[in-house]
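Per-record layout

source: Gordonia sihwensis NBRC 108236
name: 3-oxoacyl-[acyl-carrier-protein] reductase
length: 248
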Amino acid sequence: MSGPLLEGKTAVITGAAQGIGYSIAQRFIAEGARVVLGDINPEQVAKAAEALGGPEVAVGVAGDVTSSDDVQTLVRTAVDTFGSLDVMVNNAGITRDATMRKMTEEMFDQVINVHLKGTWNGTRLAATIMREQGSGAIVNMSSLSGKIGLAGQTNYSAAKAGIVGLSKAAAKELAHVGIRVNAIQPGLIRTAMTEAMPQKVWDQKMVEIPMGRAGEVDEIAKVALFLASDLSSYMTGTVMEVTGGRFM
């Protein structure tokens, strides 16, 4: 395979104003893609799109992934602006950590809605467009928390486990129309959120990682690129752990 891996492709990435989503957008653009960034923060997503190169390669759209209308606007922007929708990355997420004793019903619902319903909205609406094209790649962001369950994250663990099931079911529904659906399960990745952890908690997690370090956001972006490109052309319904060997 020669040339940029995503040359001529258009990708939509949710939760893309910062962190992992922004890094995925950077990596995709470097490989020839045009991107539509989705984020709930209008100012941040506009700044992110400008920083990535502006309207010729990156467009920012403010919206809430729990709203099907907002996600529909996001995917239609890709087609209306760049002519196609070839890759959908459902990355948007939040945390509302607490033990079950302290977690409110609202905290549970918020996390389930953003992660699980948001991923369902993105997968469903992107697939509607990709089906007409006869091709497409959908990448859904799960988490190691969805594999092992983490104390204080009954909402997050449930949502991230649900994304695995959703991705596998969607992969079976969509394979015959040329659409692949895969998921990524990151482990401890160095972001502003994880670096705000108490040192004791950070140190405890580091002990669990055979490679002895946290991952970097670009290490998730490179796996997203693999799943978005033809390098993974015979893969669908898979879950790729990017954890440094944690909880093998």
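summary: The chain has one domain: 10-242. Residues 10-242 form a domain with the Rossmann fold fold (CATH 3.40.50.720).
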